[in-house]
Structure to design on (79 residues):
């Protein structure tokens, strides 16, 4: 069964700010098929979000030093 996180819990888990989560949602960096929203309430499928973010990081290449998304690492994973 998938775990669904609030924006706050997802931000904490990913070690980013809530503002970053909001920006990633609005820009599509976190794909719409990885969360459920009702009005202003969002619930994120943790496994799907992590998979999507890691896939996009690989697609972007982590060499772009100006891309703030390069800082995301799942808990327990080292650089």
């Amino acid at each position: 069964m998938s775990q669904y996180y609030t924006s706050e819990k997802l931000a904490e888990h990913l070690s980013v700010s809530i503002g970053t989560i909001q920006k990633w949602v609005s820009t599509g960096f976190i794909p719409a098929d990885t969360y459920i929203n009702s009005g202003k309430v969002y619930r994120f499928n943790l496994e799907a979000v992590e998979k999507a973010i890691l896939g996009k990081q690989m697609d972007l290449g982590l060499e772009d030093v100006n891309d703030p998304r390069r800082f995301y690492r799942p808990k327990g994973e080292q650089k």
In short: The helical segments are 7-14, 18-27, 46-60. The first strand starts at residue 4 and ends at 5. The beta strands are 4-5, 35-38, 41-45. The longest helix spans residues 46-60.
